[in-house]
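Forgive a beginner's question, but would it be possible to get a protein, spelled out as residues, together with the matching structure tokens, please?
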Amino acid sequence: MSSPQASALDDEFSAIVGNDNVMTSEIDRYAYSYDAAVLDPVMPGIVVRPTTSEVLGRVVKFCHDNGLPLTVRGAGTNLSGGTIPHPGGVVVLTNGLNRILEINEEDLYAVVEPGVVTAAFAQEVARRGLFYPPDPGSQTVSTLGGNVAENAGGLRGLKYGVTKDYVMGMEFWDVHGNLIRSGSRTVKSVTGYNLHGLMVASEGTLGVFDKIILKLIPPPQAARSMMAVFDSITSASETVAAIIAAKIVPATLEMMDNFTIRTVDNFRKAGLPTDAAALLLIEVDGHPGQVADEAARVEEICHRQGARELKVANDTTERNTIWQARRDALPALAKLKPTCVLEDATVPRSKIPAMIAALGEISTKFNLTIGTFGHAGDGNLHPTILTDKRDKAEWQRVEHAVEEIFDRALALGGTLSGEHGIGLAKRGFLIKELGQATLDYTAKLKKAVDPKNILNPKKMEG
């Protein structure tokens, strides 16, 4: 933007959102030029912060009328570059739209604005004796709007599903400033197209969320957590497949390899068995009788598959220790090297052993340190490459390794992303999974609802 044009736009935005909600300084704009992906920052031209629904709609319409690229941003925890703005574009912050509008304890739903922080919402719901299961690793800072835009998952995805399974409906702004409604507060609703389903995982490319209706459920009455210790990562991965094959669906079924175990124990001094080749962290929940039965069956399967030890949490403190160890995996690994590349290629659950073997081969082939952990029960592994992006030769090997990780996952019937999204980071790989016809169809949909291509341009474009 030229200086006179920028000044005029500043004035226009100030008239819409108020002077205090317009940020134009270089330091402010730089703060919103990147997200949690390992990608170069891109400076926006301006950052605005609407604080009411009506103002949000006016901002969207103004951007469309003036052909200004618009990127909506929650907390910026996105791991695929989905909230990196278009050069010189507009960043629209949602942290001023952070109200829980309704929690209906009788009909089991809530209505929220997009800027509500996930963990704060889950805590408020729990205070009412209800349960909102999606629990992305970034939940203490991530927002519900961002969770919906990326279809965030989490540790409980195996049994309870991911964000899309809790979106009953929403209101969102189209580029012309019209408020679009889809879904309802009822358990059943087949009125009109499933537009709110289309908006889930759309990464801000089709509309701007205004209000979201979320399903709530009763909390489980009981839970039992356990840690299974293995001397072989192959045995651990085969145990995952065996548990699922036995028609047992734990609330969580997580895996950590030896490198991750040692790193986490050094980080937290959690008393983990650092000589173990792999750990499975398992929790079953539900009715007390069901929990006792399933826990016993899981223990039997783990021992049959070669677990050398199985530790069962005896109280809340021990349970929390188990799950804190899993949540520490990423921050612990991230401390080891300047650059941490966290991937989430996902395969059918029965293919976990094959994917684990493939990751070992890729680590050796490209001479890279890869720590592997993740939601093994739903096939969603997080191979984490520790590197230094400033080392050009090593970074080139990292890029080749990432491509091979995707290729191996797809060859096993998997997908490019289980929960992190496509954004900028993976858009070049879309054609491998979806094919050109699908990309063309998607482009036609995008052009129909966003003819000027202002909504988060370049994201998810193959």
DSSP finds 16 helices and 16 strands in the chain. The chain has four domains: 3-93, 100-215, 220-332, 337-428. Residues 3-93 form a domain with the Uridine Diphospho-n-acetylenolpyruvylglucosamine Reductase; domain 2 fold (CATH 3.30.43.10).
